Each structure stands twice: as structure tokens, then as C-alpha cells.
Amino acid sequence: MKQTLMPYYLSRAAFSIAFGLLFLATGSPWWGALLLGGLLLALFIWAPHSGRYAVHPEFGMTALRRDERTQVINDRAARNAFVVSMLLLGAIAVLAGASGAISLSLSVLRLVLLAGVLTYFASDLWLRKTQQ
Amino acid sequence: MNLRNNLKDMRVQKNKTQEQLAGAVGVTRQTIIAIEKEKFVPSVKLALELAHALDAPFETLFWLEKAEEKK
Fold this sequence. Notes:
The complex is a heterodimer of chains A (132) and B (71). By secondary structure, chain A is mainly alpha-helical. Chain A contains four helices and two strands. Chain A has a two-stranded antiparallel ribbon with strand order 1-2. Chain B is built from five helices and two strands; from the N terminus they run βαααααβ. In chain B, helix 2 (18-25) crosses helix 3. The longest helix of chain B has 10 residues, at 44-53. Chain B is globular and about 35 Å long. At the A-B interface, helix 3 of A face helix 3 of B.
């Protein structure tokens, strides 16, 4: 019997609905929850055709797996993000120490986190482009 | 030493598309493209799986070549 991606699609549809309901429960408008759930579902439907994952229908709900090349890319992007975040954090700590600041604003740490996330996605995109 | 390969020629010779070969060894088509262009060095396991999927001797598919010495 030919295995299909139906378990994957059904599980992701359930996840999208749950996520939309959670969004609704936090006080968001119904259309916002619907939009977010719909967007999430669209991403899940697109994922098997994106070329980012090896598709293994035999694994059911976890049919999408990274292959060794995409795993290498993911590891390198994560390492770059970690290094950038730590360097920024170190620089901020040195600067704060030099200026005599006792505590740091949370918004500064949010920026460090944002820089890490942006580095991850930029590295991911760059590595995918150059390793193909 | 650089790892060279003959994957594209061998795949075409066996009338297989990149998509079919990728499916046979459980990787993405992009990974097959990257290996054919020698931009990605596969693991020993994947290299052996590729040789098996193409029914080709390993040493005709992959071989080592001495890197050119810089003058």
C-alpha cells in the first residue's frame, strides 16, 4: 500500500487549529486567530514541497526530516547565531561595566536575541545559496 | 586531497532524475544537486547509499584527487 502524507497533514491541521484557539484565548480577535491558524497551515502544507526537508511518508506525523546537508546548514547557522549573541552580550557587559551601569535594560537583551535570530536566518539563507 | 565524483554522469547513464535518486537515498533534490556540483561532501553512509542506488562500484562514483600545489 502506498503511504501518503495524510497523517502529517492531519496532525498539522490539528496543531494549526489548536494554535489559532490559543491565540483566541489570549484575547485576540477571531479574524486574527483565523489568519494566524491559516498562515500556519499554509506553511505546513508548503513545507513538503519546499525542498528544505527530505520527505519520508513511512514516519507518519514526523514525515519531514532534515537530511545530512540541511542538518549541517542548520548546525552552522545555529553556531553563527550563538557566537554573534555571545559576542554582543560580552560587548554590552564590557560597555556597561565601563560606564558604571549596575543593571541592564531588558530591551537591550531583546535586541541581542533579535540579532541572534536574524543571524540564524541570514546564515541559513546564505549557506543554502552557496552550498547548492 | 579533494573528493571528486561522477554522480551526474552515472545518474544520467542509469536514466534517473535527481528527484528519483534523492527519493531512493532519502535526501532532498537540493542535496543531490550540491553533491553533483561538488559543493557538498556526503558522509560515507550517503556515498555508499548513492553507489548502491545507482548500482555502481563505489570507486567509479567517488575518488580522491590531490589538491593542486600552490606555487
